[in-house]
Automatic annotation (TrEMBL):
Protein name (record): Mitochondrial oxaloacetate carrier protein
Subcellular location: Mitochondrion inner membrane
Alphabetized Pfam families for the sequence: Mito_carr (PF00153)
Species name: Coemansia interrupta
Solcar repeat copies, ranges: 45-139, 154-246, 259-351
InterPro entries associated with the record: MCP_dom_sf, MCP_transmembrane, Mito_Carrier_Antiporter
Chief location category: mitochondrion
Record family assignment: Belongs to the mitochondrial carrier (TC 2.A.29) family.
Membrane topology term: Multi-pass membrane protein
Superkingdom to which the source organism belongs: Eukaryota
Length: 356
């Protein structure tokens, strides 16, 4: 009896130890899997990788949307500081007609003017914006709430602030390329609008600007670009964040979860409209600040000393709605660009999480 009892106890003990070992092994495997997933996700969402994804995605997007940027630039410069009159001659009447006129007279090269510096600007602007948005947002959440932004309910003012900070930083870095891009896009042998700089290439433009004004010349108009990107980025990143979360939370049962291309597409469509509405006045001012000819001795601009004066002179001469010149072209550029960029960047990040 005793032996039987001991054997029974020994069997129970062995069974318990076996179960305990199995449980520990299962826990270790689960922890290892969790660690691997966490590390992979971390690599796929690192600052460097997100910067790369944002740069690549925005360059892909601008390849398709640059013609509308050319049209927008010319519409915004047409009639600069001229009071509207019934008999005013306009070369460009609307987006479709301007697209046709430029394509007919200048060909595909005319519609893709400024694409080279446009790529460089996208890398500086959107690589910085998208790469540093989450880290900056995390710092702001930590400073104001004591907790990280991960898993916490969105605080829109902090998201807006993070987007604005990243946008202004990216615009400052990319300002020389935006300067050359704008001047190249305004140039036309067929129908000139604004001051004509006539650069032979991006390199020629940068070299001539440096020769005429040095570092100050390269960064002329940077304050206007920072205002433009700060306003646009604060709305874009925060709105996209909010829309994506809302769609995935309420329409996940229809297959629109956080990683769905459909979710990214819908969130981008809504985001593009809001961004364009907020940013267009700053975009008009930025375009004009960049394209104006240099003042005497190469110092400052001949028409505007700063963005505020540009706002004032534009509105007082052409009326408030002049700040919305080129709005449709801007949206046709910005809407698809926003959609393509965010869809591209989300897919690149997903590939990074899967393969890194």
């Amino acid at each position: 009896m005793s032996t039987s009892s001991n054997n029974s106890g020994s069997g129970a003990s062995s069974s318990g130890i076996g179960n305990g070992v199995a449980l520990l092994a299962a826990t270790a495997v689960a922890a290892e899997k969790k660690s691997t997933v966490t590390n992979t996700a971390s690599k796929g969402n690192s600052i460097l990788f997100t910067w790369f994804a944002g740069s690549l995605a925005s360059c892909g997007a601008v390849t398709f949307t640059n013609p509308f940027e050319v049209v927008k630039t010319r519409l915004q410069l047409q009639g600069e500081l001229a009071r509207a009159t019934p008999n005013m001659t306009k070369t460009y009447h609307n987006v479709a007609q301007a697209f046709w006129v430029i394509g007919k007279n200048e060909g595909l090269r005319g519609l893709q003017k400024g694409l080279g510096p446009g790529y460089m600007y996208q890398i500086m602007l959107n690589g910085t914006r998208l790469g540093f948005y989450e880290p900056v947002k995390g710092v702001l959440y930590k400073a104001f709430t004591g907790e990280t932004s991960s898993g916490q309910k969105a605080i829109i003012p902090l998201n807006v602030a993070a987007g604005g900070i990243c946008g202004m930083a990216g615009a400052a870095l990319g300002s020389p390329f935006f300067l050359v891009k704008t001047r190249m896009q305004s140039a036309s042998n067929f129908a000139a609008v604004g001051f004509q700089h006539n650069y032979k290439s991006s390199i020629d433009g940068l070299r001539r600007i440096w020769r005429e004004g040095g570092v100050r010349g390269l960064y002329r108009g940077m304050d206007a670009a920072m205002m433009r990107a700060g306003a646009g980025s604060s709305v874009q990143l925060a709105t996209y964040d909010h829309c994506k979360a809302y769609i995935s939370r309420n329409l996940a049962h229809r297959g629109l979860d956080d990683n769905s291309v459909g979710t990214h597409f819908l969130a981008s469509m809504v985001t593009g409209f809001f961004v364009c509405t907020v940013m267009n006045p700053f975009d008009v001012v930025s375009t004009r600040m960049y394209n104006q000819k240099s003042g005497a001795g190469g110092h400052g601009g001949a028409l505007y000393r700063n963005p505020l004066q540009c706002f004032y002179k534009t509105v007082s001469t052409e009326g408030f709605f002049s700040l919305y010149k080129g709005f449709l072209a801007h949206y046709l550029r910005l809407g698809p660009h926003t959609i393509l960029m965010f869809v591209f960047v989300e897919q690149i990040k997903a590939l990074g999480r899967k393969h890194l």
